[in-house]
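dumping this here so i dont lose it
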């Protein structure tokens, strides 16, 4: 499985035409990364989500509802930054946990 598929699974997304790779320099101390940018996963506490909040919480059901309402996971948010050339797949995978399908 290639890195893009691993990053975006379980969703199938077309990879970008170019994917950035870290290249070191004096300014980044040979890491290939300079500065920080956030990736975000925002769960809106909608009525449908609220209806799932109880003592026997089913996080998969809540995630499915939230994603159906437009929420993007951390990995998908990071994948968007990769597609724009702002970061690398490896960096997103390092900081964003994999979704249990």
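and the seq i came up w/
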């Amino acid at each position: 499985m290639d890195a893009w598929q691993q990053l975006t699974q379980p969703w199938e997304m077309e990879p970008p035409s170019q994917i950035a790779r870290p290249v070191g320099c004096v300014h980044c101390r040979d890491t290939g990364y300079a500065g920080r940018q956030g990736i975000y996963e925002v769960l809106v506490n909608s009525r449908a989500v609220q209806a799932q909040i109880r003592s026997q919480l089913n996080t998969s059901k809540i995630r499915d509802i939230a994603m159906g309402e437009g929420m993007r996971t951390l990995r998908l948010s990071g994948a968007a930054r990769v597609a724009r050339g702002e970061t690398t797949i490896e960096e997103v995978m390092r900081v964003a946990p994999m979704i249990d399908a």
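Helices lie at 3-8, 47-50, 59-68, 74-83, 89-95.
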